[in-house]
Amino acid sequence: MKEKNIIYDGSFEGFLSAVFYVFEHKFDVVNIQNNTSVQNGLFTQNETIPTETIKANRVWKGLTSKLSASACNTIYYAFLSEKLGAEQILLDYIKYAFSNTRKIDKDFSHPSVLKTSQIAKMVGREKHRMEAFVRFRLTKDAIYFASIEPDFNVLPLLIKHFKNRYADQKWIIYDIKRHYGLYYDLNTVDTINIEFPTHFDFTKTDDNYFSDQEFEFQKLWQDYFKSTNIESRKNMKLHIRHVPKRYWKYLSEKQPN
Fold first, then answer.
1. C-alpha–C-alpha distance, residues 61 and 58, integer Å
2. How many Å apart are CA 178 and CA 147, to the nearest integer?
3. Structure confidence at residue 238 (pLDDT)
């Protein structure tokens, strides 16, 4: 008998639709795979399933009745990791949750519960880093623009923080690794895609796109950063641990004057 590959569209709703399909057909040997990273095997059979909101909602409602709110968040965070094989870990977690009458949130003796928790914590750390390291730049369109390149797909987790913190200004946070962003228009946050010029450099503040005022802001910020830095107490190892170098190219205080 061939092993079944269930292919979904990459969305969380699509993943939950795939989970519903697995339970509906009582598959024992099955893989759930994102359509962007399908791995075909010699003895596998692929089947692409549609995303169905009603079915996805039924799975999620079932999970919320079996697990705590924190555990449901853990599942969502782990899904956003985009790690290869994460779907299988989550499917195993969900099967274990539905097969038990007791709460299994803290049952770290079970491999999928432990692994899901570990992955979710990694995603959570990346979320907090993004909240700290995002640097907005004022465009000529009077929109504050920030580019990020996180290890995980944390953009959906940033909505609440930035909508609350910058409620009085229009902004865009764009994930250049995944080619989509968030746009806040003073009322709602929408998901957007932007076609950038061919040679657009996200690390540079080009005066063709950014306002003259932005250059003044950056100069003030760089001066402030320099004035608060005590040279004799500089500890680069500690600094890099808290602000990894991979973020520096998007931090205005790290750019040359």
1. 5
2. 11
3. 65
In this prediction, residues 92-107 reach a mean pLDDT of 93
- Using an 8 Å Cβ cutoff, are 89 and 115 in contact? yes
Q: Name the amino acid, one letter, at 214.
A: E
| The 3-state secondary structure of 116-174, one letter per residue | HHHHHHHHHHHHHHHHHHCCCEEECCCCEEEEECCCCCCHHHHHHHHHHHCCCCCEEEE
What φ, ψ does residue 70 adopt, rounded to 5°? -65, -40
Instruction: Return the DSSP state at 30.
Output: E
- Closest C-alpha among 6, 11, 40 to residue 21: 6
> Which amino acid, 8?
Y
d(CA 175, CA 213): 24
For residue 12, the SS3 value is helix
What's the average model confidence in pLDDT over 210-228? 77
**What CA–CA distance (Å, rounded) separates 111 from 85?**
14
Q: Encode pLDDT of 109-148 as tens digits.
A: 999 999 999 999 999 999 999 999 899 999 999 999 999 9
179: pLDDT strictly greater than 80: yes
The number of beta carbons lying within 10 Å of the beta carbon of residue 45 is: 12
In 3D space, the residue among 94, 153, 87 whose CA is nearest the CA of residue 123 turns out to be: 153
pLDDT for 208 equals 86
Cα–Cα dist 75/61, whole Å = 13
pLDDT digits (tens, 9 = 90+) for 28-37: 889 999 988 7
CB count within 10 Å of CB 141 equals: 11
The predicted structure's pLDDT at residue 58 = 97
Q: Average pLDDT for residues 43-58, to the nearest whole number? A: 91
